[in-house]
Design brief:
The protein is α/β, with parallel strands linked by helices. Helices cover about 35% and strands about 20% of the residues. The strands form two sheets. A seven-stranded parallel beta sheet has the order 3-2-4-1-5-6-7, sandwiched between helices. Strands 8, 9, 10, 11, 12, 13 and 14 form a seven-stranded mixed beta sheet that branches. It starts with 10 loop residues before the first strand and ends with a strand. Helix 3 (about 75-90) crosses helix 4 (about 115-120) and helix 13 (about 325-335) runs antiparallel to helix 14 (about 350-365). The protein contains 14 helices and 14 strands.
Length: about 375
């Protein structure tokens, strides 16, 4: 199966889950390029005080819904239900209603169980929508650590019927094989695919798709059959050291300066960087940037600004044990002057001193936060 039958009564839903930085948005964007999904509506569950994820998803705004930007609340599944019903109400009524399936991208700290229960058992939603498949994205580099340290990651992989192991081009074979063995033990009934840069075919995703609670492990069946999840859901992030904060910057920056700053950040604070994602204004042009722990992806130029009237640089951090004030000090100290000076052989003493001071801040700042400002939003002007 590689296409959807638009005459069927219920609308197919694909649920994409997986831990922070595993590659969910990359996968969703690649699926949206395929003919089978070019008419998909998208529901994005964000976590962060500044909305970023939805502007990086390449779907028409009129076929996109955003859920719970800024919190990990227990009513996410209710908001997703409202989004689905709103989409259905517009079906057939112009471009906004011209969709034949729905992709739901869960937050990396989100619990997929209540959403699965909603799609399977809620009489209003299940009469209109059909859960086609649950796809978990496991990070080929950090997935084993995620499984060991984060209950959310265990649950995300345990309830899926397809697991995509991302970043096989970055991880070594032994690392990938060890992760695959862990995932196989956790969820023996799930298909596993190793996929680089989200490049998967519609056939690989849809062939033999069909979510089956009975095919899950005993633990997963216990979660999925526990109806209390559908009534009250505790926030997914039980670790009090996990926090989110955002940085915004009004002026243009230079790409070399930003890349240097990100690499210093990853080098000295990588263990606590669960995810960094954002859009930066590089001399007037929008670049999408992201980092996961010590891995900093190459900034990607966007064809246009997602929000024409907002050209600020916006970065959302999800961290463990990092003091937001430390990040702010390094960001402020490293001056991102737009424009580049002509190349010459002279070392500018002021620039060199600023560089040394910035590196020293990364080296001497406390590694773990103890203050209440972990969750504050930082705005640099």
């Amino acid at each position: 199966m590689s296409t959807f039958d638009t005459q069927t009564q219920r609308i197919p839903v694909l649920l994409v889950t997986g831990f922070l930085g595993s590659g969910k948005t990359t996968l969703v964007n690649c699926l949206l390029k395929l003919s089978a999904f070019d008419r998909a509506a998208v529901v994005v569950n964000e976590y962060g005080e500044v909305s970023i994820d939805h502007v990086l998803v390449r779907a028409p705004r009129y076929r996109m819904r955003i859920v719970d930007s800024g919190c990990l609340c227990g009513h996410v599944h209710d908001e997703i239900a409202s989004s689905l019903l709103d989409l259905h109400a517009k079906r057939g009524g112009g471009p906004a209603g011209d969709f034949n399936c729905v992709l739901i991208e869960m937050s990396g700290l989100g619990d997929p169980v209540p959403v699965i229960q909603l799609l399977l058992t809620d009489p209003h939603v299940s009469s209109l929508f059909e859960l086609k498949t649950v796809i978990a994205v496991a990070d080929g580099l950090s997935g084993a650590d995620h499984l060991r340290r984060h209950p959310e990651s265990l649950k995300q992989s345990a309830v899926a019927d397809s697991i995509i192991v991302s970043k096989p081009d970055l991880a070594d074979l032994a690392q990938l094989d060890a992760l695959s063995a862990q995932l196989k033990a956790l969820n023996p009934g799930a298909r596993q695919l190793r996929v680089a840069q989200g490049n998967v075919s519609a056939t690989e995703i849809l062939d033999n798709a069909g979510f089956d609670v009975g095919a899950r492990s005993e633990a997963a069946r216990g979660w999925l059959n526990d109806r209390s999840y559908a009534a009250t859901v505790a926030p997914a992030a039980a670790d009090p050291a996990i926090a989110t904060f955002s940085l915004t910057y009004e002026k243009e920056i230079t790409l070399p300066g930003f890349v240097l700053w990100m690499n210093l950040l990853a080098g000295f604070r990588g263990s606590g960087l669960l995810r960094v994602k954002g859009i930066v204004n590089v001399e007037g042009k929008a670049y999408a940037v992201q980092a996961v722990q010590t891995v900093v992806s190459e900034p990607v130029p966007l064809d246009a600004w997602p929000d024409a009237d907002d050209r600020r640089s916006r970065l959302v951090f999800i961290t463990r044990g990092i003091n937001a004030a430390d990040i702010r000090r390094t960001f402020e100290t490293f001056q991102f002057d737009a424009g580049r000076a002509p190349r010459n052989m002279t070392i500018n003493p002021e620039v060199y001193a600023r560089f040394r001071h910035t590196v020293e801040l990364f080296r001497t700042s406390p590694r773990f936060a103890t203050t209440a400002d972990q969750k504050s939003e930082l705005e640099i002007r």
